[in-house]
């Protein structure tokens, strides 16, 4: 939402997008004139990467999934799987940044470092 507030076009992806939580969050936290900068797409992380890329392309209204300059994922180390990692790699522009949340305890965080 911060990127959209600063004028960026943002695609938010969620497995439960059909439940509307992301849409309600956008409506509650972005001015009306910036809400069109946000697209919400539903993906299932367990699908093969090619199927996920096609679903994202369809959501974006493009023939193929775009490459992104910045990817942010709330799927941390405990949620990540091979397909999610491969999907993020397929969507990243060559010089893209990846921001991710790590849902671990303090002790586990120290082990990761």
Task: Explain this structure.
The chain has 113 residues and is an alpha/beta fold. Helix content is 37%, strand content 22%. The chain has 5 helices and 4 strands. It has helices at 2-5, 21-29, 49-60, 82-91, 106-112; strands at 10-14, 38-42, 68-73, 92-100. A two-stranded parallel sheet has the order 1-2. Strands 3-4 form a two-stranded parallel sheet. Helix 4 links the parallel strand 3 and strand 4. Helix 3 packs across helix 4. The chain is globular, with a radius of gyration of 15 Å. The model has no long low-confidence stretch (mean pLDDT 78).
**How would a crystallographer describe the biggest sheet?**
2 strands, parallel
Radius of gyration: 15 Å
As a percent range, the share of strand residues is: 15-25%
- The strand line-up of the biggest sheet is 1-2
Question: Which secondary-structure class do the elements indicate?
Answer: alpha/beta
What is the count of β-strands?
4
The global form is: globular
Number of helices: 5
Q: Please tell me the overall pLDDT.
A: 78
